[in-house]
Design a protein that fits this description.
alpha+beta, three-stranded antiparallel sheet, about 40% helix
């Protein structure tokens, strides 16, 4: 039973569809907005790695080089790498926020509390 991934052309989000029968395959639709305007995309592949091996890789001092806890962009890169190493999908919204002006949303969050 294959899993197929699609990107919605309307809301731009990714959906995963489990195909139970290739002979009676239902038309793909976005699981977020239910739009039928989707395109099939290449799925990520899994690399089997134990949780212990993942944690060891994160603890490697070379992964911490250039990390500045006072720099939002540096922390965003580190969090993205950590999520990828642990096999977590942060989602497109979080990735876009990290790649855009991280300082803007981090500073506005901290000034709102003052």
């Amino acid at each position: 039973m294959p899993l197929y991934e699609y990107r919605c052309l309307d809301c731009k989000k990714r959906s995963t569809v489990l195909v139970l029968s290739l002979a009676n395959q239902a038309p793909a639709a976005c699981s977020h907005c239910t739009s039928a305007r989707v395109e099939r995309i290449m799925s990520r592949f899994a690399s089997p790695k134990s949780e212990e091996a993942r944690l060891e890789a994160l603890a490697d001092p070379s992964n911490l080089a250039g990390l500045d806890e006072n720099d939002p962009q540096s922390m965003a890169r580190f969090m993205k790498n950590m999520g990828e190493e642990m096999g977590e999908d942060l989602g497109d919204d979080v990735s876009e926020a990290m790649e855009s002006d991280e300082t803007g949303f981090m500073e506005s969050d901290s000034t709102d509390r003052l």
